[in-house]
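Figure 3 (text version): structure tokens given as input.
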């Protein structure tokens, strides 16, 4: 603001000078501040103009009057820092004055002309040679600026200027400022040449000072130094320049010395250019002879050193790049071409001599010799090229001389190559350099051309395998425009095709022969060469063992256009054929992948050309992705990705054809389904016709035939899952015995087609696009629905019992894929149901009307087809609903089918028409008719009608809710009593199954009917189970057991109602023991067969376990038989056995304890139980990501430990001790704890957080994930180990060697496990206190207090109105850390005995398996034992004295006991040492 403005005159100078400070930070700060205050150029210019005088005053003061001492205090600043400060001030002041002269107009400068004149005093010229480079730089620029704008002050001081710049400046150190210095000297010379003559007053001539400057070179300056030097030499006054030969030679020597200094090697082109200019300038004053002598002495050595470097002439070496062009520029010097023309023959002869004398191959220095020769030839060729190419007016004779000499060198080199069979590759390199740099000039020479053609045709083919191979190829290219090329090329290929030549050598030559520089004529000849194309095929194709000699050769040659299309196809066909088998396919995969990467267009053409094997190539690559060899699989995956990119232009129909081929012809070599689906993700193009779509999708007829080939007789046990129940027993096996072909993934053709069609139809808008194609598409979709549902039904059965059919080869991975297919198939069907056009067609045109086409067969095909129709009808009516007309059609359909023999079609309609016929009178009437028919039939005489009636009635009751309520009660009772008799007679198992199912449906409707039929039913069930037990659980008997168990469940459910039938309850109660025994026997019988992969058996076992658990009478003769069931492969049986044992073991322990006490025998854990915990299952079982429950082996092991800990509940101390000793001897616990600590993370030092679990009470199945369930269970078992086996657990903990693990266990236990254990322990002490301590007379004087929060137990014992007390403190990590017994109040005993009691109490707690009660009892016994028989003191009449001691001083006469303290007081007060009672003398000590 205004306050600062008045000071600007004094700060403007320092401020502006600061903008030129060498310290970048300071300069930037000054510049930014100035720009902020004066943001525009006009304002900045105004400041300089306004305060010009004050700025000059500041600068003058700094430059002329300041010194190192005035600017810095030598007492506080070092000499170097002071000089640096001074240099910064001087440099910025000089720079500021320079800027004023540049920026301000002449008129403004004139206003302060005297100030500018005053600045240039004699003392300022010392800055020309100042030690600081910034001072010198700005001084030089200031002088040049004065010369441009204010020359008068300089002119007045020319003597000082000459002395400063010439006498002192030329020989001075101008490191970093040499360019500014040379430009300033140049400017002074142009303005005032007299500074070199009249004004020069030095003792030595000015030219000698210049010579010194030239020797110093550019002093690491930029390249502009040398042009400035050349300009300076040209502008020097003539009288200054040397005129004698010797002086000129010496001056040139100084220039050479400066030009060859190390720091100028990167500026050599400019420095030697300056040398040439100086030479040219100085030689003008010499005579012609002197000029020739000067060239011989100062120019030709440069040429000789370049062509043939020698150590003795190394001073003439030109460093840096493009040295040949620098040498060539010397030709511009007058008389140099003439001298060089005379010298070149000698130089050429020297090269020829070097060629001839190169070392033979046997020589140790052969390689070195050839490298030197190659370099010499390269230098010669490049120099001749640059001499001719440079714009120099060379005489024709000079050019002719060069051509003649090069032809001579070429001829001699080729002759040597022929003679020595191409081994001296240095000579070949000379030829190569000549042809490369001077090829056009040589080929224009007739003699050289003939030499090349003769050599290429006659000698070159035989030399192509020599070390000179690469260089000789250029000889072949040199004749590319001649008619002899074809024969020479063919000769080369014939020589190359020799069987004696290795594949590596052949590949090497072909790669060298064809490059981006190969002439077009050579490429044309190569394409027409049959010999070459055959050679390429042999090198790039796979042999019989799968080896490709040159895998990348074809891909590398293709860009150069030398591989014919037929050659490419042949090679690709050969490589594709190798992919048909895994062995020997590695090279083919590598070659194809490389080709697809380098030449995608060629690969795309091969894939899309119908005449090639593109499809087999894709098939082979994708198939090998599943190879066992990881390397081959990885290579095949890369190739498939490359092929997809290469063939991206491939049309839909081409890909679809590949897909269809792989679906309709299935073998182990077929493509995996994931690949097929990935190839054609969307075949339903928007513009595709129906014909094109049909071609893109698999044939439905083939799909139907493939389904027929895999449909077989269903397993009888599937009746438990089937919609038709035991009706599957009616199926007649037609014995297809067809061999179903599977692919490499184990999928059949039917499964592959189903997966593909499902994937296609699930695509976005797929159904909409298909339905837009009219009736043909609708018919196709309706058939697809049927086939999909049949496939899904068969798949469900194979998932229930793997191996039931040949739809696929069951495995964990394939089962998951098929399960996804089933879900997707139903989803696709649902989407089709929701399409109105399809739904109407299905209802009116297909499903209902098909009842007229029934054939009455009992084949598996009819069964599965009817099941599919049943599901389809049910879903259709669920989506669309129905009306009276449809209901009428459904009734007519069922009515017609009742008259036929096609039971499957009838059942299909009953189940499928459930929705439209719900509540209809017809179904009511049908049900009653069936009941009436069955009441009058006897299985013995009419087995088939009885079974048909049972199946049909069960289907009706299942399809129509509450249909049993519509049956007349009397008719219902008659039927039930009638069919119960069937269960009591010997009838086929399928009749028993359907009868039991019928009773389950009918009994709820007559639950209030009393009678003997309830007892008869219970007896019949036990009889049936006895029969099953005798015959064994076969596939046929599983449905029978299932329905009878369901019937038992129905009876129990009826008996559990509020107003249950008393007869039923009595019957169940009376037969409960028999039922339990029968079910237990069946459980043991069923445990012999695994059910993990058998869903019907698994369902039966689960139902059996549930019904067994509901039995109230669970009396077992020997529970030891149940231990074996814990190792069963059935999870349900395993769980049932555990539940039974878990309930029985604790109850039995009381009797075990009594027997052990009476018989004084050692008790042991059951051997069967111990055998289950001998082997620890691996935790790797949990690594399966698909596991949804605890693995059975792991569950069996851990549940066995739960049962083992059950033995401690209710057991006596002795029994527990026996159990613990047995576990200790067998070292069982350590294995369990090892597993627990590993899985829970203790061994890694990061145990899991188990706060979310109820640790004392584990319940199976409450956790969503098995990992969490296992964590809970292991934590619970660790808790039980510490609760029941604290001594063994603590011993295990102390044996842990890893400090990290032990610390983690202790911290984790204290946080999660110890709190419930401490609570349990304290509560047990509290309960003992309430029951025993307070009620037992022996504990009358003892009191126990339990502090739950403080984890302390306080115990006191009253003796003669004084209290003896201890405290038991439980640590945080109890019982891993021992309980601490602390003395609170000691009475009547000495310290040693008191501490002995405390140690005894703590020892009992520690070594009696952590029993605090036992420890307290031991302490009480010590107290009562010590006080027993003690008498009162005869003085104080107390047992305990004031100092809490017992009477210990006995009178030797009367034998009475006294306290020592009481006796002492008696002696003191009585003034006599006599007994208080007998008055005899008392010896106190």
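Below: residues designed for each position.
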């Amino acid at each position: 603001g205004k306050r600062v403005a008045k000071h600007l005159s004094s700060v403007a100078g320092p401020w502006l000078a600061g903008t030129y400070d060498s310290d970048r930070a300071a300069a930037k700060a000054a510049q930014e501040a100035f720009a902020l205050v004066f943001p525009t150029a006009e304002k900045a210019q105004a400041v300089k103009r306004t305060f010009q005088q004050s700025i000059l005053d500041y600068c003058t003061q700094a430059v002329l009057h300041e010194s190192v001492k005035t600017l810095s205090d030598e007492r506080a600043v070092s000499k170097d820092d002071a000089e640096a400060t001074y240099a910064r001030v001087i440099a910025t002041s000089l720079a500021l004055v320079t800027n004023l002269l540049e920026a301000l107009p002449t008129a403004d400068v004139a206003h302060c002309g005297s100030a500018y004149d005053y600045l240039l005093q004699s003392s300022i010229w010392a800055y020309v040679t100042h030690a600081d480079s910034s001072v010198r730089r700005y001084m030089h620029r200031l002088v040049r600026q004065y010369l441009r704008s204010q020359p008068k002050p300089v002119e007045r001081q020319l003597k000082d200027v000459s002395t400063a710049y010439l006498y002192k400046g030329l020989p001075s150190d101008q490191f970093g400022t040499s360019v500014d210095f040379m430009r300033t000297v140049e400017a002074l010379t142009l303005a005032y040449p007299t500074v070199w003559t009249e004004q020069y007053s030095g003792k030595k001539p000015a030219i000698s000072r210049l010579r010194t400057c030239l020797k110093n070179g550019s002093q690491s300056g930029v390249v502009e130094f040398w042009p400035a030097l050349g300009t300076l030499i040209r502008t020097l006054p003539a009288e200054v320049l040397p005129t004698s030969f010797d002086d000129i030679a010496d001056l040139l020597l100084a220039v050479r010395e400066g030009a060859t200094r190390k720091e100028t090697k990167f500026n050599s082109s400019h420095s030697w250019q300056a040398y040439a200019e100086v030479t040219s300038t100085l030689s003008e004053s010499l005579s012609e002879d002197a000029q020739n002598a000067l060239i011989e002495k100062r120019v030709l050595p440069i040429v000789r050193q370049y062509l043939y470097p020698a150590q003795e002439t190394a001073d003439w070496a030109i460093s840096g790049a493009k040295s040949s062009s620098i040498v060539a520029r010397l030709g511009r010097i007058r008389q140099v071409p003439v001298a060089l023309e005379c010298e070149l023959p000698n130089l050429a002869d020297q090269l020829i001599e070097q060629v001839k004398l190169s070392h033979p191959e046997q020589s140790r220095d052969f390689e070195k010799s050839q490298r030197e020769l190659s370099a010499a030839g390269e230098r010669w060729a490049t120099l001749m090229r640059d001499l001719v190419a440079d714009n120099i007016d060379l005489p024709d004779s000079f050019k002719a001389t060069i051509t003649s000499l090069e032809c001579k060198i070429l001829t001699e080199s080729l002759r040597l190559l022929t003679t020595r069979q191409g081994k001296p590759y240095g000579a070949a390199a000379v030829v190569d350099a000549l042809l490369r740099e001077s090829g056009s000039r040589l080929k224009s020479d007739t003699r050289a051309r003939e030499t090349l053609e003769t050599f290429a045709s006659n000698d070159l083919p035989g030399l192509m395998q020599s070390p000179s191979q690469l260089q000789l190829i250029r000889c072949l290219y040199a004749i590319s425009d001649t008619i002899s090329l074809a024969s020479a090329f063919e000769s080369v290929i014939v020589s190359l095709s020799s069987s004696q030549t290795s594949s590596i050598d052949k590949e090497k030559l072909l790669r060298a022969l064809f490059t981006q520089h190969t002439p077009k004529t050579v490429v044309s000849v190569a394409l027409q060469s049959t010999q070459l194309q055959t050679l390429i095929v042999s090198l790039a194709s796979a042999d019989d063992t799968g080896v490709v000699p040159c895998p990348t050769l074809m891909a590398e040659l293709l860009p150069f256009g030398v591989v014919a299309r037929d050659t490419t196809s042949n090679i690709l066909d050969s490589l594709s054929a190798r992919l048909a088998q895994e062995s020997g396919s590695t090279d083919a995969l590598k070659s194809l992948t490389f080709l697809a990467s380098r030449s995608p267009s060629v690969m795309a053409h091969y894939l899309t050309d119908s005449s090639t094997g593109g499809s087999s190539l894709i098939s082979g690559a994708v198939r090998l992705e599943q190879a066992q060899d990881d390397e081959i699989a990885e290579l095949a995956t890369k190739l498939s990705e490359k092929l997809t990119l290469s063939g991206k232009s491939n049309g839909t129909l081409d890909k679809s054809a590949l897909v269809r081929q792989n679906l309709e012809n299935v073998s182990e070599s077929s493509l995996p389904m994931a690949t097929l689906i990935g190839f054609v993700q969307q075949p339903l193009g928007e513009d595709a016709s129906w014909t094109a779509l049909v071609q893109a999708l698999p044939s439905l007829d083939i799909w139907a035939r493939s389904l027929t080939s895999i449909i077989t007789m269903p397993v009888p046990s599937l009746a438990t899952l089937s919609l038709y129940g035991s009706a599957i027993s009616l199926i007649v096996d037609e014995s297809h015995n067809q061999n179903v072909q599977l692919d490499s993934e184990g999928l059949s053709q039917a499964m592959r087609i189903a997966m593909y069609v499902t994937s296609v139809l699930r695509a976005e808008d797929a159904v909409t696009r298909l339905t837009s194609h009219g009736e043909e598409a609708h018919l196709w979709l309706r058939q697809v629905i049927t086939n999909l549902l049949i496939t899904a039904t068969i798949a469900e059965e194979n998932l229930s019992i793997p191996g039931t059919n040949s739809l696929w080869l069951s495995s964990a991975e394939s089962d998951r894929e098929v399960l996804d297919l089933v879900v997707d198939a139903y989803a696709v069907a649902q989407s089709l149901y929701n399409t109105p056009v399809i739904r109407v067609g299905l209802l009116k045109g297909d499903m209902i009307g098909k009842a007229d086409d029934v054939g009455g067969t009992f084949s598996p095909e009819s069964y599965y087809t009817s099941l599919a129709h049943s599901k389809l009808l049910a879903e259709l009516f669920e989506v669309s609903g129905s009306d009276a007309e449809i209901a009428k059609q459904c009734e007519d359909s069922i009515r017609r089918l009742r008259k036929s023999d096609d039971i499957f079609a009838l059942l299909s309609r009953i189940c499928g028409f459930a929705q439209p016929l719900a509540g209809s009178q017809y179904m009511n009437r049908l049900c009653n008719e069936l009941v009436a028919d069955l009441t009058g039939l006897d299985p013995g005489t009419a087995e088939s009608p009885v079974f048909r009636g049972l199946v049909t009635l069960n289907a009706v009751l299942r399809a129509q809710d509450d249909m049993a309520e519509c049956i007349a009660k009397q008719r219902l009772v008659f039927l039930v009593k009638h069919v119960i008799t069937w269960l009591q007679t010997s009838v086929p198992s399928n009749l028993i199954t359907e009868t039991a199912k019928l009773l389950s449906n009918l009994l709820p409707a007559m639950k209030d009917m009393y009678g003997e039929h309830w007892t008869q039913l219970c007896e019949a069930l036990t009889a049936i189970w006895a029969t099953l037990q005798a015959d064994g659980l076969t596939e046929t008997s599983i449905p029978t057991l299932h329905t009878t168990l369901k019937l038992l469940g129905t009876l129990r459910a009826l008996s559990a109602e509020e107003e249950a039938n008393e007869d039923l309850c009595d019957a169940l109660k009376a037969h409960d023991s028999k039922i339990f025994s029968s079910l237990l026997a069946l459980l043991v019988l069923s445990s012999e067969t695994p059910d993990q992969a058998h869903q019907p058996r698994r369902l039966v076992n689960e139902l059996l376990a549930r019904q067994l658990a509901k039995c109230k009478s669970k009396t077992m003769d020997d529970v030891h038989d149940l231990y074996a069931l814990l190792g069963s492969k059935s999870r349900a049986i395993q769980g049932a056995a555990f539940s039974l044992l878990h309930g029985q073991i604790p109850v039995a322990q009381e009797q075990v304890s009594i027997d052990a006490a009476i018989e004084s025998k050692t008790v042991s854990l059951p051997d069967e139980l111990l055998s289950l915990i001998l082997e620890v299952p691996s935790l790797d079982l949990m690594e399966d990501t698909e596991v949804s429950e605890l693995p059975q082996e792991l569950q069996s092991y851990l549940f066995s430990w739960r049962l083992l800990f059950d033995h401690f509940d209710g057991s006596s101390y002795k029994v527990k001790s026996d159990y613990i000793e047995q576990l200790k001897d067998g070292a069982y616990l350590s294995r369990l704890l090892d597993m627990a600590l590993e899985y829970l993370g203790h061994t890694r030092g990061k145990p899991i957080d188990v706060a979310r679990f109820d640790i004392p009470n584990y319940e199976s199945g409450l956790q969503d994930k098995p990992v969490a369930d296992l964590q809970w269970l292991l934590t619970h078992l660790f808790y039980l180990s510490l609760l029941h086996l604290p001594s063994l657990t603590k011993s295990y903990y102390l044996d842990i060697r890893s400090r990290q693990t032990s610390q983690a266990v202790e911290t984790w236990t204290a946080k999660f496990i110890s709190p419930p254990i401490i609570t349990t322990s304290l509560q047990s002490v509290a309960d003992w206190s309430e029951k025993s301590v307070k009620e037992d007379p022996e504990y009358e004087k003892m009191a126990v207090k339990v502090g739950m929060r403080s984890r302390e137990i306080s115990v006191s014992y009253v003796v003669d109105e004084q209290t003896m007390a201890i405290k038991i403190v439980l640590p945080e990590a109890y019982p891993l850390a021992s309980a601490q017994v602390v003395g609170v109040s000691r009475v009547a005993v000495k310290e040693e005995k008191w501490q002995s009691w405390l140690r005894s109490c703590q020892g009992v707690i520690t070594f009696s398996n952590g029993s605090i009660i036992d420890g307290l009892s031991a302490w009480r016994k010590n107290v009562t034992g010590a006080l027993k028989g003690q008498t009162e003191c005869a003085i104080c009449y107390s047992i305990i004295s004031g100092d809490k001691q017992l009477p210990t001083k006995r009178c030797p006469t009367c034998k009475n006991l006294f306290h020592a303290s009481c006796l002492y007081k008696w002696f003191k007060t009585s003034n006599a040492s006599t007994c208080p009672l007998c008055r005899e003398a008392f010896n106190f000590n």
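DSSP finds 68 helices and six strands in the chain.
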